[in-house]
């Protein structure tokens, strides 16, 4: 199985030329790497130009967010169909910096699949409590997001477990805790969709992933890849991370 690496560029870089340069550097690096699959989520203004210039299959383009509405009366928004028609194959849904409601997870997941793309659904807690109530909330996020999908559509969905408190830190969450939570997510999926589908859904980890910790994170059973934030546009660091991921 290839490791999925989702590069969330957030609101960087500042200009289209730099966006293309970063893309080209990543493209050059992944050409030699057989065990990683890259999904780049640039700011949406760069998505179409990056997608249109790339003919390979090692990198796919992803939107960081879409509107929860298909009504054109949504000034400043971006629709699922616009992303699909501009070369986007994936959509990030529910990243904590977007501020989505629980119900937005359901609608945006549905619209993404409706337009033939794959949703990357972000789930995770803002804080942990000793009684494990946050797990109940993770279960609710999963079940709400998948509510409108047919069973056969669920198979392709990707989840990213990204505890909000672990974003933008020096270190990621402890490996043992990542494993425990990802196992819980897997169990919830198997309970509802059965073994075959539940075992096959890709579950990623996000939150302060870098070249120093990528090996440990990808070595955790049941973690199928990662989402990187800040390091995604630091080409030297990101290429190093890809090389390590490829060897893991
Ligand atoms: P980070 O961001 O890697 O900079 O912590 C992750 C994210 O926001 O998805």
Q: Catalogue the unreliable spans.
A: none
Structural class: alpha/beta
Helix content: 40-55%
- Spell out the helices and strands N to C: EHEHEHEHEHHEHEHEH
Count every helix, treating DSSP H or I runs of 4 or more residues as helices.
Answer: 9
The average pLDDT value, as a whole number, equals 96
CATH classification class: Alpha Beta
Termini Cα gap: 11 Å
What percentage of amino acids are in beta strands? 15-25%
What name does the CATH topology carry? Answer: TIM Barrel
Q: Give the overall form.
A: globular
Task: Reconstruct the topology from this structure.
Elements: E1 3-8, H1 16-30, E2 36-41, H2 44-52, E3 59-63, H3 80-85, E4 88-93, H4 102-114, E5 118-123, H5 133-146, H6 151-154, E6 158-161, H7 175-200, E7 202-206, H8 214-218, E8 225-228, H9 235-247
Parallel strand pairs: 1-2, 1-8, 2-3, 3-4, 4-5, 5-6, 6-7, 7-8
Helix pairs in contact: 1-9, 4-5, 5-7
List keywords for this structure.
binds 2-phosphoglycolic acid, TIM Barrel, globular, eight-stranded parallel beta barrel, single chain, 248 residues
């Amino acid at each position: 199985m290839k490791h999925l690496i989702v590069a969330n560029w957030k609101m960087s870089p500042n200009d289209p030329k730099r966006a293309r340069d970063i893309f080209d550097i990543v493209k050059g690096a992944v050409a030699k790497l057989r065990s990683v699959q890259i999904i780049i989520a640039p700011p949406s203004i760069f998505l179409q130009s990056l997608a249109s210039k790339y003919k390979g299959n090692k990198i796919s383009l992803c939107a960081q967010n879409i509107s929860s509405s298909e009504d054109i009366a949504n000034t400043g928004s971006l629709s699922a169909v616009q992303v699909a028609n501009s070369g986007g194959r994936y959509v990030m849904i529910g990243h904590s910096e977007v501020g989505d409601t629980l119900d937005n997870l359901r609608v945006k997941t549905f619209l993404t699949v409706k337009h033939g793309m794959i949703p990357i659904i972000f789930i995770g807690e803002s804080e942990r409590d000793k009684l494990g109530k946050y797990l109940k909330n993770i279960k609710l996020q999963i079940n709400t997001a998948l509510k409108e999908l047919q069973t056969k559509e669920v198979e392709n969905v990707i989840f990213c477990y990204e505890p909000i408190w672990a974003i933008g830190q020096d270190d990621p969450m402890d490996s043992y805790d990542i494993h425990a939570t990802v196992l819980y997510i897997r169990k919830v999926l198997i309970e509802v969709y059965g073994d075959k589908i539940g075992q096959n859904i890709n579950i990623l980890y996000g939150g302060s992933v870098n070249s120093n910790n990528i090996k440990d994170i990808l070595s955790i059973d049941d973690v199928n890849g990662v989402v990187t934030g800040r390091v995604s546009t630091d080409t030297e660091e990101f290429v190093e991370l890809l090389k390590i991921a490829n060897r893991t």
